[in-house]
Amino acid sequence: MAPVLVPIAYIVIVFGGLFIFSFFYRKHTSTQAYEPYFSSHPERNAYVTLLQKTDPPASDSLLKSALVRRAMADVQRVMRIREDKPALQNLLQKGSIGDDLWNSLISAEKELEAEIMEVVAEANSFVEGWGQVIFPTANEMMANEKMRVVFDNISEAKAELELKYDVKAKITATIGAAPTSQPRSNGLAPSSAGTDSVVSSDGEASSTPGKSAQKKAKKRR
After folding, report:
1. How many Cα atoms within 13 Å fall on the side-chain side of residue 48?
2. How many CA atoms lie within 13 A of 160 on its CB side?
3. Is the dihedral of CA 134, 137, 142, 143 positive or negative?
4. Greater confidence, 20 or 176?
5. Is the pLDDT of residue 173 over 50?
6. Mutual angle of helices 60-94 and 134-152, in 10-degree steps
7. CB 79 within 8 A of CB 112
8. Could you say which of 26, 108, 119, 153 would form a disulfide bridge with 37 (CB–CB 3.0 to 4.6 Å)?
9. C-alpha distances in angstroms, 144 versus 80, 103, 137, 139, 213?
10. Angle at CA of residue 13, ends 9 and 17, nearest 5°
């Protein structure tokens, strides 16, 4: 009987210890306050401040602009989470990072989902159906701003390259005009006036003998 109870007692002790450790660990992590993944949300704070302003109240155009800026900030956060999540998950599996950073990311992802739903509801409160297109619009505006920043920095980058390589950029434009050829007349085509004159002269020549014959016939009569 004793040899049978020993392995059973061993299994009970091992699994019981694991269960107790898991219970207290989950209780500790559930009450632990993680450091936020994103420090603050100034665009949301600005929109809420304008929305609560009553003397004088903010105009609808100003509120819409602030809401679009808020949506643009949310799009940036979504893109950052999509980029960071696979890398952090890989590092967590390797043991390179702790659970605190991963739990902070998961918490930020849940907060961002609630933030997106709130922005959609606010957009629909202004114009019905605007919530479906506000985030694509914000994404396009972000792309336009990035392109504008690149174009604005072209002159600075050009100056840095000229200073680095001690040369000046030269733009050479070659403008070539294709020669135009005019058709030449070979002088073989007869003119219309000449043709008319030939025809008219032939007509007169053919009609002259007929008139003289008629005159002779009248004299004989």
Report:
1. 7
2. 5
3. positive
4. 20
5. no
6. 80
7. no
8. 108
9. 19, 34, 11, 9, 98
10. 170
* DSSP class of 12: H
CB 69 within 8 A of CB 46: yes
Better-predicted residue by pLDDT, 81 or 191 = 81
Neighbour-count burial for 3-12, b at 16+ CB within 10 Å, e otherwise:
eeeeeeeeee
Predicted local confidence at residue 194, as pLDDT: 43
- Nearest by Cα to 49 from 69, 66, 72: 66
Distance of alpha carbon 89 from the chain centroid:
29
Place of tokens 């003289």: 212
